[in-house]
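Hey team,

Sharing the FAS1 domain-containing protein run so nobody has to redo it. Sequence (187 residues) first:
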Amino acid sequence: MEDKYNNPSACAALELNNETGDNSDGQVVTMSLESAGGARKRQQEELDVLSGLHRTVKMTLLDGDTVGAIKRLLTLPKVCTEAIESQDLTSLTRALKRASLGPVLDTLRNVTCIGPTFEQAGGPDEKADLRDLTKALTFHILTEPVYTNFLADGQTFTTVSNETIQVTINTTGIFCNDAKLIKRNVM
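Structure output:
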């Protein structure tokens, strides 16, 4: 496997809707060969496995234990900058390029990037001092994988710049410090 794809934190587009119309929450995949009652399932059982980009792949078990056939390729998650670009987050893409942080971000493991919307702040992605821009971007990178469906009001997270972000959840949305999350679970 290419090293650029060996990044479990770079999951793409969990915001895509699944077959029931709900937001995806498949970032954790659990496959069990036992039923709820503890009995083994029959041979030739098929498992649905959720891969990157919210694609479901059927896997056939030959002997109740061993995967015998995968009916479609698992979709690899994108690295952070590819996921950001694919979601048309243009000001964040420009800011990462200007600060030369894209290649660094793509090699970090198990992080979450909370991309600021620079348009609302008068375009600092193009005008800000490079040190200030780099500081702002690193403040928005959490040191662990975080998905909105597992957030709780009052949770705190450490950033790669060793600062703290606190989560607030209320009827108007999810906030990191005082900034409202607009696009969730892109990666």
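The two ends are 19 Å apart (CA to CA).

Ping me if you want the raw files.
A.
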